[in-house]
Amino acid sequence: MHKPLYIKEFLAAFEQVVPQALAYDWDAVGLQMGDVNTPLTGILTTLDVTEAVVDEAIEQGVNLIMSHHPIMFKPMKKIDFSTVKGRLIKKCLLNGLTIFSAHTNYDRVDGGMNDRLADRLALVNREMLVEEDEIKNVKLQVFVPHTHKEILDEALTRLGIGTMGNYEACVYETDGIGRFQPTDKADPFIGERQTREAVEEVKLEYLITHDQVSNALSIIDEVHPYETPAFDLIPLLNTGKVRGIGRVGDLTEPISFHPFIKKVKETFGLDGVRVAGQSDKLIKRVAILGGSGEKFTMAALKKQADVYITGDMTFHSTQDIAALGLNIIDAGHYLESVMKDDFKEICQAIFKKTDCDYPIVVSRVNTNPFRFI
Ligand SMILES: [Zn+2]
């Protein structure tokens, strides 16, 4: 028998992996509906939330749907049960389902949608298709009495703090003496009011990203025994990682356009794709962006991609970009459905860390509105 895990606890752990702060302002990510103060019974991962997907979740007895596309992308003014969306919401609520979406935050996070797409094509020498901002690094140093060193370090590193390249839980430790004198108003954990105190303390230093600061401070607040914990946040000039969307990278071996199309179809399990550009072109450098990537065609050209794989391309812009020499594979928006397996992996890792075990169902519903005949 595994210990119960509340949906809000699971979502807090998911937030560490895919922070909502990374989403674009216009997006509608995170909790879409439901009661997060409910014990989790299981998870269903899906690209879209349709009625068939909701039926599947009910049938499988899971109460959390983790989707990529938000169910309520456009703000609603009323919930009319006679509409498709209204009926869907009614069904979710009556069946106690919680719906949570990670959309552009998952597109942008390191190791998210676009990295996973590039992984599947084994692209090397990878860079961002569109560079958006640099992740700022911060040095966190926190001074803690010896007795609480382990517990604080464990709580911080569990959040992914102290990750450097392929190394996790990186911390530098220095012993020292902390001196202080509690005032009349203080409620000291160690020492007496109005008496000078000296305590053997440890300074723990971590490299953290700017996004991790608020989580780190709430952990210090929660775990540090002192009434007023001492810590420093020092902005660093070290170059941080660049964040952005889409990926560009090289194939290990150049390949002609037609065999490459076949490879893309096989890799992503696609029945058909629309292509444009020169049929005899040799493909070495590949740009890929899941979803509707039409507005980034010039970025793909600038990054010297031979082909750009994305979805939702329209007639005229495809015509224009192909004339400039960039080949296009419109693999459809449904290309993104590979995230169903990737979300499962993320959920499994969270269960492993939290010592829980619940069913994770990868939706079998094909939510692609298009089919090839
Ligand atoms: Zn999408």
Automatic annotation (TrEMBL):
Keywords: Metal-binding. GO terms for cellular component: cytoplasm. Pfam families: DUF34_NIF3. SUPFAM superfamilies: NIF3 (NGG1p interacting factor 3)-like. It comes from the Bacteria. One of its GO terms (molecular function) is metal ion binding. The keyword Transferase does not apply. A divalent metal cation binds at residues 68-69, 107, 333, 336. Belongs to the GTP cyclohydrolase I type 2/NIF3 family. This is GTP cyclohydrolase 1 type 2 homolog. It comes from Halolactibacillus halophilus.
